[in-house]
Write a structure and sequence with these properties.
Layout: H1 19-23, H2 27-31, H3 44-47, H4 56-74, H5 86-89, H6 94-107, H7 111-128, H8 135-146
């Protein structure tokens, strides 16, 4: 089991991963979350040996370029796209479409969840500078959704 901030006992609620706690979170509430990212605890000894990552300025520039791409394409941010506009602005490669459909069926997603994953995949593709959503973009978006408990 991967240790994260909560399971390592560093948060106030040490039992977030327990089925009892997660069962208290309503499905409609969870349905409104776009991303769930698990952050592993890195032991202090390993922190010193980590290679430097990208600077905030580099990441901010990439995000600004992705946002500019989205605004030029559709006039609004990807997160604000209406469900009926996704077919026009979130064009999927055939394999990415198949992956999305299989995942939605297997994981029991609602229509809201399906559309949220599609919007996130559109953003991932924009960050990569891609016109169409490829399988890798879709897989990344699905992975960011899979951390949610239940359908």
């Amino acid at each position: 089991m991967m240790r994260n901030w909560l399971s390592a006992g560093m948060g106030e609620c040490k039992n977030f991963e327990s089925p009892h706690y997660q069962g208290r979170l309503s499905g409609p509430f969870l349905d409104r979350l776009d991303l769930v990212i698990e952050v592993a605890v890195i032991p202090p000894r390993e922190l010193q040996d980590l290679a430097p990552g990208e600077t905030s300025a580099v990441v901010a520039e990439r995000v600004a370029e992705a946002r500019t791409r989205a605004l030029a394409r559709q006039g609004i941010a990807n997160a604000l796209l209406q469900a009926q506009d996704l077919a026009t602005h979130a064009v999927l490669e055939p394999a990415a479409k198949a992956l999305l459909e299989r995942s939605a069926e297997r994981l029991g997603w609602s229509a809201r969840s399906f559309h949220r994953v599609l919007r996130v995949a559109r953003t991932v593709a924009d960050l990569a500078g891609a016109a169409e959503i490829a399988t890798a973009h879709m897989a990344e978006a699905i992975q960011m959704r899979r951390g949610l408990p239940g359908p």
